[in-house]
Amino acid sequence: MDKITELMLQLLRCSLNKQQPQLSPISLDEWEKLYWLCRKHGVVTMVYDAIEMLPAEQRPQGDIALSWELSAERTRYHFAHQAQVLSTIRQKAEEAGISLILIKGMSLAQLYPRPDSRPCGDIDIYFPNNYQKGNQILGNPDAPLDGKHSEIVFEGVNVENHLHFLDLNYLSQHRAEKYIIKSLKDATPEGFLPPMGNLVYLLMHTVCHLTAKVKLPLRNVLDWGIFLKSHQEQLDPEECHKVMRYIHMNDAFNMLTLVAGEFIGADLSRYTDKEKIRTNDVAKFRNMILNKDYLPSVPKEIKGLKRLKVRYKRNKQRRWLYRYLPSSKLERIFGFICNMFR
Questions:
Q1: I need a labelling partner for 328 at 20 to 30 A (CA). Which of 91, 250, 286, 336 fits?
Q2: What share of the chain is helix, strand, coil (3-state, %, to 5)?
Q3: How far, in Å, are 161, 164, 266 from residue 147 at the CA level?
Q4: What number of other Cβ atoms are within 10 A of residue 230's Cβ?
Q5: Which CA distances in Å does 42 have to 8, 34, 60, 120, 130?
Q6: Contact 161, 131 (CB under 8 A)
Q7: Residue 118 phi, psi (nearest 5)
Q8: Which residue, among 216, 222, 211, has the nearest Cα to 293 in the 3D structure?
Q9: Angle at 184 between CA 178 and CA 189, to 5 degrees
Q10: What does the DSSP 8-state code read for residue 54?
Q11: DSSP letters of 269-337?
């Protein structure tokens, strides 16, 4: 791991654990490289929280200091606007007599030391048994009645009204969806999923990035670690593994938890079964996230057998990753073959 990446993780841990950073001298060039790396991973404001704990003489200076400050201010302004819009949606739902479940970014932000430092791209909502009414509340009664969710711009903010919590392409996702819906009876008064239901949802949502784009953003891994750390009293490790076995996601659960614990500087070992973690995969997993070591798409101009050969080679490079996807061995083989011809 290079020095700038290590510095980013060090400052993230300080920010997420409210600890005073202890840094060696950092050059202006290194501050600039750090800024752009944090921009790349969407964690500028979280890292800036740690920078603000430093003595004035240790902080970045000049134009790069202004870049940090303006980026943080922009993130917090956007979050405040989203919070205001969410309040309006909650009020409209209450007036319509329907309940609302807040999921993903805006709900997870509440678990961070400073919620408005966690960037949120949009607002994700689930109206139990009232998907169409939800679309009406958001001002678009003609939104599609199929697919995973509708996308509606409400008061300048993109809102995703979910018909389903998950993509339903694999058996694991179908089982997880049923489990989450069943858990809604224990949703919190504030409109959040109960801990076990949220555990299943967040794991499947995080792994969804791997299934859809073979990409896993750092911020999603941080979310996973913060969630587990914040709910250690409510989540029983044995029950967690029991549910993971039911949805065939034990490998992904163990790997994500191990790496997330490293990234946020928290001991999450009570959740992991280290004997079942493939140590050779840990470095690959970590590298894929931190270096965005994703497979490039196959150029459209490549046709015929040559395209088939390129796709085969490409898929084979990520064969190790299939172990962590929400699919059975048969589904993986079928998916591997189908991907060859796309």
A1: 286
A2: 60, 5, 35
A3: 11, 8, 37
A4: 16
A5: 12, 12, 19, 10, 33
A6: yes
A7: -95, 105
A8: 216
A9: 165
A10: S
A11: TTT--GGGS-HHHHHHHHHHHHTT-PPPPPPTT--HHHHHHHHHHHHHHTGGGGGGSSS-HHHHHHHHH
Amino acid letter at 303? Answer: K
**Residue in the structure block whose two tokens are 């996308």:** 151
Q: Which residue has the tokens 């919070």?
A: 83
Give the span between the Cα atoms of 307 and 297, in whole angstroms: 11
Structure tokens at 211: 């299934």
Coil, helix or strand at residue 268: coil
* 202, pLDDT greater than 60: yes
Q: Is the pLDDT of residue 249 over 90?
A: yes
Tens of pLDDT, residues 151-196: 999 999 999 999 999 988 888 999 999 999 999 999 999 999 999 9
Q: Say what the pLDDT of residue 286 is.
A: 93
Residue 240: both structure tokens together:
């967690």
Those residues whose C-beta lies under 8 Å from the C-beta of residue 32, and which sit 6 or more positions away, are 64
Global confidence as pTM:
0.91
Secondary structure of residue 153 in the 3-state scheme: strand
